[in-house]
Design brief:
mainly beta; 7% helix; single chain; 3 helices; 15-stranded antiparallel beta sheet
Length: 273
């Protein structure tokens, strides 16, 4: 349970289940995985993020418990629009891996302007827990559709209306990186995870902190309202994120309260590949 709260602070919140790890599970495929790959040019927005790969070490006190990665690896053509393909992975490490193995993959297809998401895919395998889900957002008809696969190997289809342009929980992180953040002001992000909701992020202060990349000036933000995902604290707990105070807004550190102490996710490597 401790690791369940720790490893996914940069990814998707967990649910509980009783699935045996040895069971063979189905898998589901998001239609966006087959989107035609396209090239970027000088006019493509937010090229700073293209091919960027961020690697985080996650610790609980003095114990290192896992790693997380976020990578934009290519662009794709979706409904005539150019989108980035984002992928994040999480896994346990060290002694924790021996008694609680985590292998999670989350994918997202945001518009290159980061104004909205065209869909997402998540494949979670955490100890005895297994869950797959994808959604595709159809803005021409203002609907979404998708599938979810549960522990009983049952695939259920979902479909409903959209109220507005939305982000998924992974693309919301990069949307925040594109904004001008002003101290004392809240940022609202429209998100859909099978229902529309708003994520509220409060911009708290500026602070200079020590990182593996030297001392960096950062903007500290705190998520206030949400459902599930990257910038969402557990109920009754607080979470703080340090973004570099420059045009790149690199998320260099995250701290979150849990039922015993707090956890920290620290950026240890940033490269382009």
């Amino acid at each position: 349970m401790v690791f369940k709260l720790i490893i996914n602070v940069l990814l998707i919140s967990f649910l509980s289940s009783n699935l045996k790890a040895t069971e063979k599970m189905k898998t589901i495929t998001c239609p966006l995985e087959n989107a035609t790959e396209t090239a970027i040019d000088e006019t493509t927005p937010n090229k700073t993020f293209y091919k960027e790969k961020l690697e985080y070490e996650i610790s609980w006190g003095i114990m290192n418990v896992g790693k997380s990665f976020i990578h934009i690896d290519r662009t794709a053509l979706i409904d005539g629009n150019t989108a980035y393909h984002m992928i994040s992975k999480a896994r346990t490490s060290g002694m924790v891996k021996k008694f609680y193995s985590v292998r999670d993959i989350n994918e997202s297809w945001p518009d290159v302007n980061f104004n909205r998401s065209y869909g997402y895919l998540k494949k979670l395998q955490e100890g005895k827990y297994f869950y797959n889900e994808w959604l595709v957002f159809d803005y021409e008809n203002m609907t979404y559709r998708g599938e979810k696969l549960n522990k009983k190997n049952i695939v259920r289809k979902v479909k409903n209306k959209l109220q507005r342009d939305v982000h998924d929980v992974l693309s919301s992180l990069y949307y925040l990186r594109t904004l001008k953040l002003e101290q004392g002001k809240d940022v609202l992000v429209n998100v859909n995870t099978k229902r529309d909701w708003q994520l509220r992020v409060k911009v708290l202060k500026k602070e200079k902190i020590k990182t593996p990349f030297g001392r960096r000036k950062c903007i500290v933000v705190e998520p206030r309202v949400g459902n599930e995902g990257i910038f969402v604290p557990k109920e009754g707990k607080k979470m703080y994120v340090w973004l570099t105070d420059d045009k790149e807004r690199i998320p260099v550190m995250l701290k979150a309260e849990i039922f015993i102490g707090s956890i920290k996710a620290e950026l240890v490597k940033r490269k382009y590949e």
